[in-house]
Amino acid sequence: MSYKKAIFLSLTAISAFTACNKDKENTASNPTTNQEVTLRVSWWGGDDRHKKTLEALRLFEEKHPNIKIKSEYGGWQGWQEKITTQMAGNMAPDLMQINWNWINIFSKNGDGFYNLNDLNSTIDLNQYDKNILEQCVVNGKLNAIPYGVAGRVFLYNKTTYDKASLTLPKSFDDIISSTKVMKEKLGNDYFGFETDYYGALLLMLYKLEQETGKPFIVDNAVAYTPEQIKNAADFYLNLVNTKTIPSLEDRAAAGNIQLDQHPNWIVGKFGGTYEWDSASLKWRDSLEKGQELVVGEYPKDFGPYKSGFSKVSMALAINKNTKHPKEAAQLLNFLVSDPEAVKILDVSRGIPANASAVSTLKENNLLDPFILEANNKVIEFAGKGIHPLFEHRQLHTSLKDIVDKLGYKQLSSEEAANQLISVTNNFLKENN
C-alpha cells in the first residue's frame, strides 16, 4: 500500500468516526427526536381530578406521538408513603404531583428533584410570580413548579352587616365596634367574627408578620420575641373578651362541627371568618338562601407589611434521575399552560399559579368570579410564606394544645408565648 493511499484511508476513517460521534452528540443534546419515549406520571386526588388528568394526558400523546404516558394515580390515603418508598428505591415516576412540604422531606439540600432552572428553555417560568417560585427553591435550585397558591381570606356576611346598618369592616377595630352594634340591634348571639383554634393561631401570626415583616419561622427558629407573641396572644384574647368572637369554650359547647356547618353560620349570626380561599365557595354555598357572602379587605391595623397567610397548595416536580428530562419538561409545561389542557383540567387542582392558564380559564368562563377574587386577594397580600415544617402533624398537634389552653384560660398569654417558642424551636432542632 502506498503512503498516500494509507493517509487517505486514515483520514476517511477519522472522518467517519467524527461524523458518527457528532450524530451521537446531536441525539443526546436534542432528545426531541422521533424515538419512542415512555414517561411515568403520578398524582393523587378524587375521581374528577383523575378523569380530567387522564383526558389531558391523552391529548398530550396525540400532540406528541413519540411520547407515551404511563399514569399512576389514587387517593390521598397512603400516597405519601408510596412516594417515599419509590424515592428511597430510585423508582419514582418521571413527573410527580407533590405536596409542597415534600421538598423539605425529599430535598433538604436541593438535590432531591431535578433542577427546573436547567429546563427553563422548555418550561416558561415567566408565567409565575417570583415570590411563589421562590417557595420551591432550595440552595438556588428550583425543585418544583407551584401548581397553585392557597391562602386565608377574610369573608364577611354582607347580609348580616346590612341588617345592622353597618358597612363592611376594613380593620379589626371595625370588627370589634361592629359587633357591639350587632348585639344591640340583632341580639347577643350575634358575633362580628368567628374562628376555630387554628384560625386563632393564624390571626396571631397575621398580626406578628404585619408588625415585623417576618414569618413565624426564619432560619429554623421562631422569628419573634416572647413579648411580641404575648402581645399577639393578648390581641386574640381581646377579641374573645369583647365578645367579638365566641370563646373556644363556647364553640365546644355547640359540638365538634365544622364552622361552615354551624347553625349560627348558616343563618348569618356569625358576621365573618378567616378561611382558605380555595374553600370560599363552600362557605358561601352553606349559607341559607338570601344570605350574601363577600370577600373582604385585609385589615392593616398593625404595620406596613403584607401578612396574609399563604402557601403553595401543591406542585409538579421532575425526578432527578429521569432519563428524559426534556420530554418530562414538555409534559409539565403542557399541563400548566397549554390552552386545551388548561380547559380540560380547569380547577381540579385549584386555581393555577400560571398567569397564562388563569387567562385561559377567565376567557372561557371557567372560573367562578367569587373564588377568583378570593385567590387574587391572597396573592396580592401574601406574606413571606410558611416554613415547610409548619404544618407537620406533630408540631400542629403541639401548637393546637397550647392555643386550646390559652383559649380555655389554662395558660396566660405570657406562658403561651414561651411555650409556643420552646415547643416550635425544639421541634425544628429535632427535624432539621
Structural summary, described in words:
This protein starts with a helix and ends with a helix. β7 and β8 form a beta hairpin. The protein is 48% helix and 13% strand. It has helices at residues 3-29, 47-63, 79-88, 102-106, 130-134, 158-163, 172-185, 197-212, 226-241, 248-253, 263-266, 280-285, 325-337, 339-345, 355-363, 369-380, 393-407, 413-431, and strands at residues 37-44, 67-74, 95-98, 137-138, 141-142, 145-157, 217-218, 221-222, 272-276, 293-295, 310-318. The protein is globular and about 75 Å long. The strands form 3 sheets. Strands 1, 2, 3, 6, 9, 10 and 11 form a 7-stranded mixed beta sheet that branches. A two-stranded antiparallel ribbon has the order 4-5. A two-stranded antiparallel ribbon has the order 7-8. α9 crosses α18 and α17 (393-407) packs antiparallel against α18. The protein has 2 domains: 37-150 and 311-380, D-Maltodextrin-Binding Protein, domain 2, CATH 3.40.190.10; 151-310 and 387-431, D-Maltodextrin-Binding Protein, domain 2 (3-Layer(aba) Sandwich), CATH 3.40.190.10. It is of the alpha+beta class and 432 residues long. It contains 18 helices and 11 strands.
Please give a quick description of this structure.
The chain has 432 residues and is of the alpha+beta class. 48% of the residues lie in helices and 13% in strands. Strands 1, 2, 3, 6, 9, 10 and 11 form a seven-stranded mixed β-sheet that branches. Strands 4-5 form a two-stranded antiparallel sheet. A two-stranded antiparallel ribbon has the order 7-8.
